Amino acid sequence: MSSFRIVRPMRISTLIRARQVPLPDHWTRWSNLHRLSSANLRRYLHGSPTQRHGNVTRPDPGTGIKLHFKDSKGNLLKTIEANEGDDILSLAHEHDIDLEGACEGSVACSTCHVILSPEHYDLVPEPSDDENDMLDMAFGLTDTSRLGCQVQMARELDGMTAVLPSATRNMFVDGKKASHH
């Protein structure tokens, strides 16, 4: 008869403490933070302000880029004025327009699918491969469909219409509706 020795799986932290495995560089760096002076600590821990978090300045009336939101039947929902660089999804959330955006603009869903006016569609930069992949899953896809999170407003888009499709496909349904932060 042969004898078997049962080997118990060990946690990586146990192996590191026993010095059976080399300590990863990032563990050494982060485990010694409590020993740093406040001046040196700032070198390791830093932050930058969020670009537009809670402090959005809207253009003066009549000076912004006009964007018309319509429902799937063509009824005007709202006309808003935007700044250059604003994306359609953020504008919709900011103005309480029912455009979901489940992935919050990370191009991982098609819930912010909008249909652009044909005369403005060609003025928008070409969609990326990732955006095209997500658009393939969009409900009611048309030749002028885009993801609202990927369309940034520019002066030449003044007067553009974004039509919301009659339905969206949400692969991330969890009972929570995305909203403007």
From TrEMBL:
<dbReference type="GO" id="GO:0005739">
    <property type="term" value="C:mitochondrion"/>
</dbReference>
<dbReference type="GO" id="GO:0009055">
    <property type="term" value="F:electron transfer activity"/>
</dbReference>
<keyword id="KW-0408">Iron</keyword>
<protein>
    <submittedName>
        <fullName>Ferredoxin</fullName>
    </submittedName>
</protein>
<dbReference type="InterPro" id="IPR012675">
    <property type="entry name" value="Beta-grasp_dom_sf"/>
</dbReference>
<comment type="similarity">
    <text>Belongs to the adrenodoxin/putidaredoxin family.</text>
</comment>
<dbReference type="InterPro" id="IPR018298">
    <property type="entry name" value="Adrenodoxin_Fe-S_BS"/>
</dbReference>
<feature type="domain" description="2Fe-2S ferredoxin-type">
    <location>
        <begin position="63"/>
        <end position="168"/>
    </location>
</feature>
<keyword id="KW-0411">Iron-sulfur</keyword>
<dbReference type="GO" id="GO:0140647">
    <property type="term" value="P:P450-containing electron transport chain"/>
</dbReference>
<dbReference type="InterPro" id="IPR001041">
    <property type="entry name" value="2Fe-2S_ferredoxin-type"/>
</dbReference>
<dbReference type="GO" id="GO:0046872">
    <property type="term" value="F:metal ion binding"/>
</dbReference>
<dbReference type="Pfam" id="PF00111">
    <property type="entry name" value="Fer2"/>
</dbReference>
<dbReference type="InterPro" id="IPR036010">
    <property type="entry name" value="2Fe-2S_ferredoxin-like_sf"/>
</dbReference>
<keyword id="KW-0001">2Fe-2S</keyword>
<dbReference type="InterPro" id="IPR001055">
    <property type="entry name" value="Adrenodoxin-like"/>
</dbReference>
<keyword id="KW-0479">Metal-binding</keyword>
<dbReference type="GO" id="GO:0051537">
    <property type="term" value="F:2 iron, 2 sulfur cluster binding"/>
</dbReference>
